[in-house]
Hints:
This protein is mainly beta and 472 residues long. The protein is 4% helix and 46% strand.
Amino acid sequence: xxxxxxxxxxxxxxxxxxxxxxxxxxxxxxxxxxxxxxxxxxxxxxxxxxxxxxxxxxxxxxxxxxxxxxxxxxxxxxxxxxxxxxxxxxxxxxxxxxxxxxxxxxxxxxxxxxxxxxxxxxxxxxxxxxxxxxxxxxxxxxxxxxxxxxxxxxxxxxxxxxxxxxxxxxxxxxxxxxxxxxxxxxxxxxxxxxxxxxxxxxxxxxxxxxxxxxxxxxxxxxxxxxxxxxxxxxxxxxxxxxxxxxxxxxxxxxxxxxxxxxxxxxxxxxxxxxxxxxxxxxxxxxxxxxxxxxxxxxxxxxxxxxxxxxxxxxxxxxxxxxxxxxxxxxxxxxxxxxxxxxxxxxxxxxxxxxxxxxxxxxxxxxxxxxxxxxxxxxxxxxxxxxxxxxxxxxxxxxxxxxxxxxxxxxxxxxxxxxxxxxxxxxxxxxxxxxxxxxxxxxxxxxxxxxxxxxxxxxxxxxxxxxxxxxxx
Length: 472
């Protein structure tokens, strides 16, 4: 036989065998599909708000192809789940199913799932459904869909022209921004939770009174309830919303037992008359900001028992004005960029008076405290009393500005002061560790009576916003 004909015959035989193998489909009931996940859990979602898309793969690891007579959504669209299987949407026109789908051996298909919960009759409702994969053999496999829907109040570009109170009955979603006009007061009662879209912030031309309690903080955060990565919720990512902006002419603002996190700038206070109080901040937190934590420009600000932590800019940035800080924790451990700012920065672009007592100023860098005399024209008054500072000990000529200060040893990491600083899992607990320098280092005459959690300080008060719990 001609060798060319022999090669041709062998090639055709191989091709036929290959095609036959690829097109062989099993009806053996022991053949099963493999799913990258058998449950798609959306966790908590807001009712009527579309979620991000979740996906999973369906693999055929058998030695033959598998025919699916149908892939269907068990409850149609009654629960609000929307499913696309290998490019086909399971909609009402098809009975929420796709038929006659083939998955050859070694092949896969991808499934996409979204959810828009219907309007709820209860505050919270569990939602369940199944995607059912029906084989030609009769074998039925399911992927479960789960979520808990939360009924929320939605405010679109909400503008206060009269006094208004927002309370804690439901979470409140802010789209486009929340603006308080001059002459108006916005009151946030204990337990109120505001969820801001990425382009939204709180703009205060009038007055803000945010009054949480130790057990029911007011919370201001981004609206994303899902996760960027399995280990990282969007709520743990900075820059999720625009933060709080207190404008010129706004006075007597109060932020008490309030948690503000994952913003651009946390709180910005514009230039005001420094003889009038712009902001009193007590027992509150500003954490994980893509800008500054608190930025005060020529304003009168009091910060007591508060935590300002982890910012791309400065945790506390003061440009002129009158600022008092007592029993507060300023800790710069921002994890997303090594070019992070200072824990505390101040200058005298206008006249400056800053007094820091019984506080911790620390972070990753060897020096996290920066004071800049930017003008010889204006006063540059600063004083630290009974504080723990991560900065080189100043020369004798500056000693009057630093009274009974504990200086951290740069060889020891600043995070040793705290219970947990875990940059891998992005978990933080700024309560004092057992070996913290701040323990019992406060001044009984100037320390505040209670801490960030509303706990009474003992006869030897600790530095920072948390009083360490003593062993019984």
